[in-house]
Amino acid sequence: MREVDPRRRVPRTDALLADPALAAAAVTLGRDLVKAAVVRAQDRARRGELTPEQVRDAALADLPSRTPRAVLNATGVVLHTNLGRAPLAPSAVDALVAAAGNTDVELDLRTGRRARRGREALDALAAAVPDAGAVHVVNNGAAALALAATALAAGREIVVSRGELVEIGDGFRLPDLLASTGARLREVGTTNRTTRADYEAVIGEYTGFVLKVHPSNFVVTGFTSAVPVAELATLGVPVVVDIGSGLLAPDPLLPAEPDAATTLRGGAHLVTASGDKLLGGPQAGLLLGDADLVHRLRRHPLARALRVDKLTLAALAATLYAPTTPTRDALHADPVRLRARVERLRDRLGEDGCKAEVVPSAAVVGGGGAPGVELDSWALSLPERYAEPLRTGRPAILGRVLHGRLLLDLRAVPEVADDRVRAAVLSVGD
Ligand SMILES: *Cc1c(COP(=O)(O)O)cnc(C)c1O
């Protein structure tokens, strides 16, 4: 008997659309999109690229993913820009969900009148930093700087030290951003040294403000000097400080990291920062400072283009009220406890015949701040061949490969996820 041509055995469209997984996908993605994927998979089978048995899975694999892939951050980099920086606190996640529908974001339900947009978030920020006369929130740290430059220095000069003209990452250069607002950059000093006299020499009628930028991703050491905020504040022009990381108050663990409260108390007129770095919240740009400056920013037409949505405002308010955040917990995790977690993981993997080792690791804060700071940490060490299956699994687990080993540093992995790490490692097998 002749074998039936496999191309004749390609499953029919209606049979495929009735498959539970494809039918479930049609509920969220729509039938047209799922059908198109089915037709593409059938065509591939007719061309002999797939067996008839592979058609269903190929159609499923061809569907667009509805949500971003969850990743467990075992890199030892607490704030990993490629992983979306700060993971949100549970209360911030709840707030996001609550804000997804219609909310009172801009309405006072008692009076029925329009109210200040995002007042919970603004009140929480003002309460967290009483030194600020007023606060405002925009889309991200770069937007905060762009708004300050546009509103306070367009057509005028921003005086900035050459040592602070930084590239934040992915080609984002602060000087380019500032120049794009129509302000002129007036560079003073040199890469390693800038003095008060350098600033004094250029300050004049064209000065919009003096900008001080925290170099958040590198350190300059050796023969250096910079002018502290307190001294810049006596130059007679507004001083804007980009602290970057969003620490609102000092953190003893990160003594070199500037914070909003101390910077304002030191005399800064305006502080800008990100919401999703050390603050541990959603992507946002924070502006804190003298009430009159903040009001000028808020009233500037550009402010409308940079305004944050209700989801961000809800998550930011919840973050500011949360007793702690995953970012803070990861930063302050006790190395003794981390070691015990990694040893327990190793022992339990050992019971299932998987041999892993426990090794010390040096974690870092990451692009979000504190360059040069190393945090004592512990990692599970596995053969390098585990890296790819773990990275492409669900959840994806991202570690770091070093000298032929995959290191899973648990500092930024929530403890509740240890069982999932164990299951994922076991599923890789031999
Ligand atoms: C991260 C950073 C920025 C950019 O902030 P985004 O929120 O990423 O836009 C600007 N300045 C400094 C000093 C930073 O560290």
UniProtKB/TrEMBL annotation:
Its EC number is 2.9.1.1. It is an enzyme of class 2 (transferase). SUPFAM superfamilies: PLP-dependent transferases. Coiled coil: none annotated. Keywords: Cytoplasm, Protein biosynthesis, Pyridoxal phosphate, Selenium, Transferase. Transmembrane segments: none annotated. Residues 7-46 form the L-seryl-tRNA selenium transferase N-terminal domain. It comes from the Bacteria. Its cofactor is pyridoxal 5'-phosphate. Pathway: Aminoacyl-tRNA biosynthesis; selenocysteinyl-tRNA(Sec) biosynthesis; selenocysteinyl-tRNA(Sec) from L-seryl-tRNA(Sec) (bacterial route): step 1/1. The modification N6-(pyridoxal phosphate)lysine is found at residue 277. It catalyses: L-seryl-tRNA(Sec) + selenophosphate + H(+) = L-selenocysteinyl-tRNA(Sec) + phosphate. It is found in: Cytoplasm. GO terms for molecular function: L-seryl-tRNA(Sec) selenium transferase activity. Its main location: cytoplasm. NCBIfam families: selA. Belongs to the SelA family. Converts seryl-tRNA(Sec) to selenocysteinyl-tRNA(Sec) required for selenoprotein biosynthesis. This is L-seryl-tRNA(Sec) selenium transferase. It comes from Micromonospora echinospora. The gene is selA.
